[in-house]
Amino acid sequence: LCSNNNPYASFGATLARDEEQNLWSTPHDVTHTEADDDRVLYNMIVVRNQLDKDSEEWQKLNYDIYTLRQTRKEVRSRWKHILEDLGFQKEADSLLSVTKLSIISDSQNMSKARDILLKLLEETNIFPTSWELSERYLFVVDRLIALDAADEFFKMASAVYPKRPGGDRADEGPR
């Protein structure tokens, strides 16, 4: 157990680092979906890594990358908290997991899922003010429709993350 030849010694550290870089699925998962927001983050990382670490441009990009990652974590955390409050404690992570193999359960649900997602964006603060809708949440809403929980999710999101006058973002709401 104490051998320096253990190939699994850094497994936890590697997994944690990979998870930080890719918040949506296991990075080594061949089914990983690369959405537009993933490409934006990836391109920022590539550009930053080509710059001198002492430069202002590197520091600015590093800050922007950190901010984007934190925003994505915050949005995912908000969705997960609502799912858990609705009784999906064990299923929350799998409901939020989107891969290349993810499909819309019923093509008739697509427009309803899109409408609910837009309603969440416009009428709640579950997403930050500057957020551009991510396609992955369309799949999540579709799953909620299939579980007959989409309307309850919207009601809970409205109660926990109400839209404030003037577009101010609500911080963590009551649970």
From TrEMBL:
Q: Which InterPro entries match?
A: Melanoregulin
The Gene Ontology biological process terms listed for this entry are: melanocyte differentiation; melanosome transport
One Gene Ontology CC term in the entry? melanosome
The name under which this protein is listed is MREG protein
| Lineage, opening ranks | Eukaryota, Metazoa, Chordata, Craniata, Vertebrata
The UniProt gene name for this protein comes to Mreg
